[in-house]
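Example record for the data management plan.
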Amino acid sequence: MMIYLSFISLPHLLYIDPGTGGLLIQMLLAFGLAVLLYLKKIIRWVKVLFGYKKEQIDNDEKTK
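Corresponding structural encoding:
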């Protein structure tokens, strides 16, 4: 009986209020920006590793 009841399709009334929608959008944007910054750091590391871009040396290290 439980298996039969689990396959019955009932109408689902779904409502997302503006506060929840705004929170979801904010979370998605924050996640996307975090991924972009992380990928930027990895790409910079790979460029330095293969010599495409030299690491910037601070002025303090140049004077030593």
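Summary line stored alongside the record: The CA atoms of residues 17 and 23 lie 10 Å apart.
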